Amino acid sequence: MQVQDLEKIFQDKIDREIKIEPKDWMPEAYRKTNIRQISQHAHSEIVGMLPEGNWISRAPSLKRKAILIAKVQDEGGHGLYLYAAAETLGSSREQMIDDLHSGKAKYSSIFNYPTLTWADMGAVGWLVDGAAILNQVMLCRTSYGPYARAMVRICKEESFHQRQGFDALLVLSKGTAEQKAMCQDAINRWWWPSLMMFGPKDSESTNSDQSMKWKIKRKTNDELRQSFVDMIAEQIKLLGMTLPDPALKWNDARKHYDFGEINWDEFWQVVKGNGPCNRQRLEARRKAQKEGEWVREAALAYANKKAVVQKHVAA
Ligand code: BYC
């Protein structure tokens, strides 16, 4: 069969909402785009464990500590489902991790900001996981089967994450003047970076057009960002706090909130590796990789030994 015919069958499947599976023929660019996006998503989950892990030993109560441990562990699990989904496209785990450590692969800009106070744990849960869910609910319907199926479970866990974040902030928002101030300060610092998580404006998004045609993405960066602003602008009223944007205003004609201009220069600086914590995050990942070497070696030796024993038993 000619490549054009294969491409037609492929696009036809996508148009008819039939999932693409690992053994199906697919254009090389579709494979590459999925590997890029899924592996970057996996890296974000793993690097995302660092800013929150930072607070496990300092959580204000046993209950909050248990919740935070569970959340950070969930993020590790999400990373593993996603690496496994990317592996079905022919990329090895080692290669993906090398690309993260060499700085070749990206991960979400949001995790290059520091978590300075306990209120940041609430703000990360509410805003960062809130932004992540909006994006990820759409990805439950992405065209590549293993990615879509991984996202279903991830989304269930993320919605718990968002609620626990909101709950932590709600407690602070009803506390002492100092606690209220800490809550507002965390919201002020995390608001704009959360809006950046959705990526550049549609007019600057290099991958969106093709990814929308292939139904890897179902909504554009700007559409998702607008849904996020509309959702948070309402939820913040329950906290009695404010968002740090004087331009934020309901627009009755558009039936959406208008909001101010994002600092795109800051976004690109962070994406290029010059954010407040980029170096620290990569160093922590490289260190963990090195220190875990003996564990990987031992696990591999055990797996090989078990395979030899099983071969003997079978023979
Ligand atoms: N940070 O053409 P575009 C989570 C890059 S949540 C860094 O629009 P695309 C978690 C982009 O990669 C976060 N880089 O790209 C939550 C591209 O560069 P390359 C993870 C960014 O892919 C709580 C260039 O800019 N979620 O995990 O069509 C706790 C142009 O952009 C960012 C996901 O990864 C950014 N914010 O759309 C723990 C969801 N934005 O690759 C963990 C899956 C853009 O061409 N990913 N870039 O060199 C996606 O949905 C899409 O990849 C994006 C970007 C919407 C993020």
How would you explain this protein's 3D organization?
This protein is mostly helical and 315 residues long. α2 (28-47) packs antiparallel against α4. The chain has a two-stranded antiparallel ribbon with strand order 1-2. It is built from 13 helices and two strands, in the order ααααααααααββααα. Helices cover 69% and strands 2% of the residues. The chain starts with a helix and ends with a helix. The protein has helices spanning 3-15, 28-47, 49-53, 62-87, 93-102, 119-139, 145-173, 177-196, 208-213, 221-239, 264-274, 278-291, 293-314; strands at residues 249-251, 256-258. It binds benzoyl coenzyme A (BYC). Benzoyl coenzyme A is lined by residues 36-37, 40-41, 44-45, 48, 75, 106, 108-109, 128-129, 132, 135, 196-200, 205-208, 211, 217, 221, 271.
Topology of helices and strands:
Elements: H1 3-15, H2 28-47, H3 49-53, H4 62-87, H5 93-102, H6 119-139, H7 145-173, H8 177-196, H9 208-213, H10 221-239, E1 249-251, E2 256-258, H11 264-274, H12 278-291, H13 293-314
Antiparallel strand pairs: 1-2
Helix pairs in contact: 2-4, 4-7, 6-7, 6-8, 6-10
Benzoyl coenzyme A binds at residues 36-37, 40-41, 44-45, 48, 75, 106, 108-109, 128-129, 132, 135, 196-200, 205-208, 211, 217, 221, 271.
